[in-house]
Amino acid sequence: MKALVREPSFPSSSRGLATRCPHCHGDLRLRDLKDGDQAHWCEPCARGYRIGCLPAAALYSAQGH
Question: Is residue 43 part of a domain?
Answer without folding.
Answer: yes
